[in-house]
Design goal:
The chain has four helices and eight strands. By secondary structure, it is an alpha+beta fold. Strands 2-3-1-4 form a four-stranded antiparallel sheet, with helices on one face.
Length: about 170
């Protein structure tokens, strides 16, 4: 079986996920994991699929002909199969929003040798505070031997208003 990672973007419309998933099923693909979003009137998604080698070309062709969508297809990395899972931290991060906050968080995590493997963020209003609030959920993988508290402390030291909580898996 081939692992595929597809990214999809296009103007949102009703039935779009059904259309994509039907195309995958009709071409013998199996939908494994996805992250789909509505952003500023557009559908944006990333999907991990698996498909038998003999159906790969037909599936790729069918996906590329879906109307109004830009689709990119990449083959999964075989080198990752059988590797031990690294330690993961699920972080909930909240603070006053400002330009550059995501870059600051990403830089601290990278400098600690960790890696962001999933990030979901949003800005929301804080009616009692008068400033917008940034909130994010991030999954971070740690290098072997790293203490999770070192990453959490480094993130909290970015600014006094940043709160980092660890969500237990």
């Amino acid at each position: 079986m081939k692992q595929l990672v597809i990214t999809i973007i296009g103007k949102d419309r009703p039935g779009l996920v059904e259309e994509i998933s039907t195309t995958v099923l009709n071409h013998h693909g199996n939908w494994l994991t996805s992250n789909l979003s509505y952003l500023a009137g557009h559908f944006a998604g990333i999907v991990q699929l698996e498909v038998a080698e003999e159906h790969l070309q037909a599936l790729q062709g069918a996906l590329s002909t879906l109307p109004g969508l830009d689709i990119r297809i990449e083959c999964g990395d075989k080198d990752l199969e059988g590797q031990a899972e690294p330690e993961k931290l699920n972080l909930i991060i909240t603070g006053n929003d400002r330009p550059g906050i995501v870059r600051e968080l990403a830089a601290v995590i990278r400098h600690k040798g960790a890696n962001i493997t999933q990030l979901s963020s949003k800005q929301r209003s804080a009616p009692n505070w008068g400033v917008p609030i940034f909130s994010a959920m991030a999954t971070v993988t740690l290098p072997a031997g790293m203490n999770k508290d070192a990453v959490i402390d480094a993130l909290e030291n970015i600014t006094a208003d940043l709160i980092v909580d660890v969500e237990e898996a």
